Amino acid sequence: MACHSGVILSVRTNEQWLNDLRSSGPEQAEALEELRTLLLRGSLYTFSRSLGPGSAWNGEEVLRLAEDCAQEALIAILSHLSDFRGDSKFTTWAYKFAVNYALSTARRERWKGISLDELSPLNDDFDWISSAALPGNSPAQSILQGEVWMEIRRILKTELTDRQRQVIKWMVFDEVPMDVVVERLGSNRNAVYKLLHDARQKVKQQLEARGFSTAEVIELFGSQR
Amino acid sequence: MTSSRKTLNLRKWLEQVQETLPEEISCSECFDLISTYVDLEMDEEPAQQRLPLVHQHLKQCQVCRDEYELLHDLALGEKEGAVPSIEELRRRIQGGLE
């Protein structure tokens, strides 16, 4: 038996987990109870790490959310047991469900009541990316920074769709979590990730087509820190 | 947001642009593989080489990165017998600590 600060777990193999969860009677009940405990611990751990110091969150409310997330994770795991291929430990595989539900919930709760429309507007000045003036280390560097900055603005303005620009502004520059953006757009994580990926590809291709190596561009903006 | 923060965000995004691959895995595909990736690390196997597209996705996707870091810490805690108990975690949350 493994003991973690008073929590006693039996050490099951992957096969034992699957067999017991799929069985009936006391073996299944015991496995379910252990799995619930594991998921609740994963969910609570995730919330505890997601709360900032001096958080304004109501502790009891967070505990309730953690319990709900653990329950949702349990339901998801039981419906996806056939997906477990044994490439990892069952406990690690199970933990990821708890972490996923808890972190998504924590992010949405943190942004509840904050309208994305309250953020600075998307505009053609692109001041939501960086200040208009980028002080360089030398006159030559300043000129190059100006050229690169104009090119990046051109690419953003003419090569990306409105949706790509808006999502980039929210996620990359306003630091809005993807879950919040997904909810706002009525979309899903894969679709938003693909949208960002397509945008990155366009920017990379356009910069390189204009003779700018992305590595050199990064160095220019890195020197400002 | 300060000007320096904006510039930092721009730089980080340009680094992601530089590391963009023609084909990248989705968040769902990353989720499917993340427990394998973490356990490879727990076994001190070269996870980045064995699952390079997961490694790359984690550099591009902050939400998946955040989940990975928590999962990694939980798995490491399990390995070392150091995951806090439910009672301790409840105390932390009720006390507003972390």
Molecular structure report:
The complex is a heterodimer of chains A (225) and B (98). Chain A is mainly alpha-helical and 225 residues long. Chain A is 65% helix and 3% strand. Chain A has a two-stranded antiparallel ribbon. The longest helix of chain A has 25 residues. Chain B has 98 residues and is mainly α. In chain B, helix 2 packs across helix 4, helix 2 runs parallel beside helix 5 and helix 4 packs across helix 5. The radius of gyration of chain B is 17 Å and the shape is flat. The mean pLDDT of chain B is 92.
Instruction: Please give the domain count of chain B.
Output: 1
Radius of gyration of chain B: 17 Å
> What is the distance, rounded to the nearest whole angstrom, between the alpha carbons of the first and last residues of chain B?
25 Å
What characterizes the major β-sheet of chain B?
Answer: none
Oligomeric state of the chains in view: heterodimer
Which protein chains are joined by the largest interface, and how many residues does each one contribute?
Answer: A-B, 73 and 60 residues
Write the layout of secondary structure elements.
The complex is a heterodimer of chains A (225) and B (98).
Chain A: E1 2-4, E2 7-9, H1 14-22, H2 26-50, H3 59-79, H4 90-110, H5 139-158, H6 162-173, H7 178-185, H8 189-209, H9 214-222
Antiparallel strand pairs in A: 1-2
Helix pairs in contact in A: 1-2, 2-3, 2-4, 3-4, 5-8, 6-8
Chain B: H1 3-18, H2 27-42, H3 47-50, H4 52-60, H5 62-80, H6 86-95
Helix pairs in contact in B: 2-4, 2-5, 4-5
Short description:
The complex is a heterodimer of chains A (225) and B (98). With 225 residues, chain A is mostly helical. In chain A, 65% of the residues lie in helices and 3% in strands.
